[in-house]
Amino acid sequence: MHCPFCRHADSRVVDSRTSDDGASIRRRRQCPECNRRFTTVETASLSVVKRSGVTEPFSREKVVNGVRKACQGRPVSDDDLALLAQRVEETIRASGTAELDAYEIGLTILGPLRELDEVAYLRFASVYQAFNSLEDFEAAITVLRAERDVASSSDPAGPGDDEARSEQ
Ligand SMILES: [Zn+2]
């Protein structure tokens, strides 16, 4: 690791600390040349494989940009979108996947987006799952209604739940 101040090629770790959620390690480093200190943050890399085959680092910003259009005119704030992107990243990291494609990210977005705003969810799902008929919308809305019924009843394992799962 180069020293960011004098570009010396080496540095010494003086302190290591794991973040509260265990997802990253902060290291305090000192340059033996200029003696200045700096911090590095280490996280497991999460790569996204694009359709072209090129991989790029996972980006919450891209998740936000991906759903922003679907949320136009809806009561969804920038904070809501940031939180959604954070949940998407946490879900992916919790699954232990180090590399995934855009389709899988879309799949991970659907759940939290549905909780956030059902209209935005339908818009996003219609593009992402390539709805091409009224029947596709009807089916998706039927699932939403069934989920709502399940959520309002005391039985969490109702038939609507299973239907939704197979739908995704
Ligand atoms: Zn230095």
Automatic annotation (TrEMBL):
Q: Sorted alphabetically, which PROSITE patterns does this protein's record hold? A: ATP_CONE (PS51161)
Annotated spans, Disordered:
148-168
Q: Which residues form the ATP-cone domain?
A: 46-136
Cofactor(s) for this UniProt protein: Zn(2+)
Classification via InterPro entries: ATP-cone_dom, NrdR-like_N, RNR_NrdR-like
From which residue to which do the unnamed zinc fingers run? 3-34
Domain of life according to the entry = Bacteria
Keywords on record: ATP-binding, DNA-binding, Metal-binding, Nucleotide-binding, Repressor, Transcription, Transcription regulation, Zinc, Zinc-finger
The free-text cofactor remark is:
Binds 1 zinc ion.
Q: Extract the coiled-coil ranges from the record.
A: none
Report the function annotation for this chain: Negatively regulates transcription of bacterial ribonucleotide reductase nrd genes and operons by binding to NrdR-boxes.
Q: Which family does it belong to?
A: Belongs to the NrdR family.
Protein name as catalogued: Transcriptional repressor NrdR
Naturally occurring in which organism (per UniProt): Cellulomonas chengniuliangii
